[in-house]
Automatic annotation (TrEMBL):
Function: Catalyzes the first step in hexosamine metabolism, converting fructose-6P into glucosamine-6P using glutamine as a nitrogen source.
Source species: Pontibacter aydingkolensis
Annotated catalytic residues: 361
Name recorded for this polypeptide: Glutamine--fructose-6-phosphate aminotransferase [isomerizing]
Subunit structure: Homodimer.
Entry keywords, A to Z: Aminotransferase, Cytoplasm, Glutamine amidotransferase, Repeat, Transferase
Positions of the SIS domain: 43-182, 215-356
Section covered of the full-length record: 246 to 611 of 611
GO molecular function: glutamine-fructose-6-phosphate transaminase (isomerizing) activity
Enzyme Commission number(s) from the entry: 2.6.1.16
EC class (word): transferase
Keyword Endoplasmic reticulum in record: no
Subcellular localization: Cytoplasm
Recorded catalytic activity of this chain's protein: D-fructose 6-phosphate + L-glutamine = D-glucosamine 6-phosphate + L-glutamate
Length: 366
């Protein structure tokens, strides 16, 4: 059932070229410049005219929501708020009939996410769901939605569900940008072609496995990790840190790289591994400075860079090269080495990666 893999998590990491493709199949045909999502079409006007989009989710799904905030605000120019479902539901939030609330959940059974959307529904908002499990409670409670087609995710640590969520959210941002006229046709076509090439690039990123095993060997006994990223890679930093702590029990924190000097920089010494996601994008020059700041304090830098980059590799201790793509799509590639890193470190530490202590696959109690 694990298809020859030692753990479900590894099998699911390796399924991503396929699960990403399945999540866009029939929804994106780049050759004919065609995009289609039935759930979105039904509410297209409402979506396009919404005062704002509120995304509610927990854990990894919340990280996918953060990526969507960058995508939707940039491509469709609709204000987006991303909320922890547990906080949103209890703070008497302001919700109107002109809001669209998007609930993201792999299992479709997360108690806080379900309660948050029920609250929003009672205030008259339109509820859109992005779930992986067909017919789940959240999927049934929404007005409309789009399934991720990641297939069953068994490993407790979410991997392929995350990239499937980001794929679906990217398509939604592109559809809304087109409808609202905020996304130029040339840029749209570029993004469509890029998105179609993502599964092959994920396949390539998976070939980094051996190199990541070597890095994991070096850092498996660390007690703390810092993950830094900017822009589209900021949510990926959060996700990398979450993956590491949940399955290897190593303390890890994800931060927007610029926030480092507002506190976490105090932690950096020669013992501290710092994973910096530093791909070539609009914040590249800024992240170069952040890497310099870490090196000046003798931190050990593990950098995720774009193929062919020479600047960051000249400063970092360990370099992992991933294929180039548009910054809008980079989380789909930059998260892959982080999933593998946490997996290998956890295995080397003898942890039960598929069923980490104290965690459940779906959190049906608050
Ligand atoms: C992380 C993880 C959890 C879930 C969270 C939300 O790897 O598995 O953080 O992402 O419990 O679950 P869903 O998406 O099922 O609502």
């Amino acid at each position: 059932e694990k298809g020859g893999y030692e753990h479900f998590m590894l099998k699911e990491i390796y399924e991503q070229p396929r699960s990403i493709l399945d999540s866009m199949r029939g929804r994106l045909v780049a050759e004919s410049n065609h995009m289609m999502m039935s759930g979105v079409r039904e509410y297209e006007n409402k979506f396009a005219n919404a005062d704002r989009i509120i995304i509610v989710a927990c854990g990894t799904s919340w990280h996918a929501g953060l990526v969507a905030e960058y995508l939707i605000e940039d491509l469709a120019r609709i204000p987006v708020e991303v909320e922890y479902a547990s906080e949103f539901r209890y703070r008497n939030p302001i919700i109107t009939e002109k809001d669209i609330v998007v609930a993201i959940s792999q299992s479709g059974e997360t108690a806080d996410t379900l309660a948050a959307l029920e609250l929003a529904k009672s205030k008259g908002a339109t509820i859109f769901g992005i779930c992986n499990v067909v017919g789940s409670s959240i999927a049934r409670a929404t007005d409309a939605g789009a399934y991720t087609h990641a297939g069953p995710e068994i490993g407790v640590a979410s991997t392929k569900a995350f990239t499937a969520q980001v794929t679906v959210l990217t398509l939604i941002a592109m559809i809304l940008g087109t409808k609202r006229g905020t996304l130029e046709t040339t840029k749209l076509h570029q993004l469509m072609a890029e998105l179609e090439s993502i599964p092959a690039k994920v396949e390539k990123a998976l070939k980094l496995d051996n190199q990541i095993v070597e890095i994991s060997e070096i850092f498996k006994d660390a007690t703390n990790f810092l993950y830094l990223g900017r822009g589209y890679n900021f949510p990926v930093a959060l996700e990398g840190a979450l993956k590491l702590k949940e399955i290897s029990y190593i303390h890890a924190e994800g931060y927007p790289a610029a926030e480092m000097k507002h506190g976490p920089i105090a932690l950096i010494d020669e013992q501290m591994p710092v994973v910096v996601i530093a791909t070539k994008d609009s914040s590249y020059d800024k992240i170069v400075s952040n890497v310099q700041e870490v090196k000046a304090r003798k931190g050990k830098v593990i950098a995720i860079v774009t193929e062919g980059d020479t600047t960051i590799p000249s400063m970092a201790d360990y370099v992992i090269e991933i294929p180039e793509t548009s910054e809008h799509l980079m989380p789909l590639l930059s998260v892959i080495p982080l999933q593998l890193l946490s997996y290998h470190i956890a295995v080397m530490r003898g942890c039960n990666v598929d069923q980490p202590r104290n965690l459940a696959k779906s959190v049906t109690v608050e």
